[in-house]
Amino acid sequence: MSSSTEKLTKKQLKADHPTWCPACGDFAVLASFFNVVQKLGIPHEKIVCVAGIGCSSRFPYFVNAHGIHFIHGRAVPLATGISLSRPDLHVFVFGGDGDGYSIGGNHLTHAARKNVNLSYVIMDNFVYGLTKNQTSPTTPIGHPSKTDPRGAIDRPINPMAQLVASGATFIARTHAAQVKHMNEMFERAILHPGFAVVETLSECTMFYPGSFDSANPRKGGVFDLVDEENQNLESTAAAMALAEEDFPGKFGVYYETRRPTKNELEWQWVEDAQAQTPDLSEKDLLRQRFAGMR
User: Is 160 helix (H, G, I), strand (E, B) or coil?
Assistant: First the structure.
């Protein structure tokens, strides 16, 4: 690994060759991540990538850094533990609409409300791609899949509304075909102190081709941006109004605010406890605490 004084190169960051299907939007997300990490000069040894299960969750295999490919839907609680125990690290979570909004939805909500300091990129493709075309939590009504051959009948969730309601302190939305915008959203998410989520539309060219063409100007769509000059980014009501717009909606930062992170609050507890008991080590304090819980 490089030292913290060296500027990382893409060659240093790349690991195995990505195994996604040709033209999958996740390729662009990976490239954008590399670009932003290089630009920000994050030390190589401080990068941690965590993912669950799914096509997009293969991310840690393709990044030459500390990485963990964890069980389905449990990437966020694992990343929470890493972030709380090692606040000096930059913790990144990568996943898809299934891993993040379905089996991992409850973990997403609680990590968001606790404001754990990490960055979460959710690559939403409206379908379960790794299991070969099954209905996901964001699949539009009427779209056929192996689990709904006559078309999805369940109302899809609204990811942005769910994120606003969860209490995340940075919430943004971007599109894998809009690389410059994606770079900007990733950079702002990484620099934000707290739980930062970027909902990223990433087309599954194998099982849902053309799903996001309506937001891609090169394919006749409209990429409409949030007007930050007139948008109150600290208003959950204003963010929810954006979230309720018809698809494809707007792209950019929906909500951004600053409040103490769980990391800051917990380390304050540790420091207060150590000040009151200077004779005890951190391990002794933990043992004492566990003994009192029996």
Answer: helix
* H-helix or E-strand spanning residue 40: helix 26-40
- Cα 246 from chain centre: 23
Residue type for 38, please?
Answer: Q
Say yes or no to pLDDT of 2 above 90. no
- pLDDT digit string (tens) for 107-165? 999 999 999 999 999 999 999 999 999 999 999 999 999 999 999 999 999 999 999 99
Cis peptide before 193 (omega within 30 of 0): no
- Cα 30 to the chain's mean position, in Å? 13
Chain segment 52-72, per-residue pLDDT in tens: 999 999 999 999 999 999 999
Alpha helices (H) along 73-192: 75-85, 97-101, 105-114, 159-166, 179-191
* CA 250/CA 252 separation, integer angstroms: 7
Q: How far apart are the C-alpha atoms of 286 and 294, rounded to whole Å?
A: 13
Q: How far apart are CA 294 and CA 291, in angstroms?
A: 6
Report pTM: 0.93
Q: What is the secondary structure of 167-183 as a DSSP string?
A: T-SEEEEEETT-HHHHH
Residues 79 and 50: beta-carbon distance below 8 Å:
yes
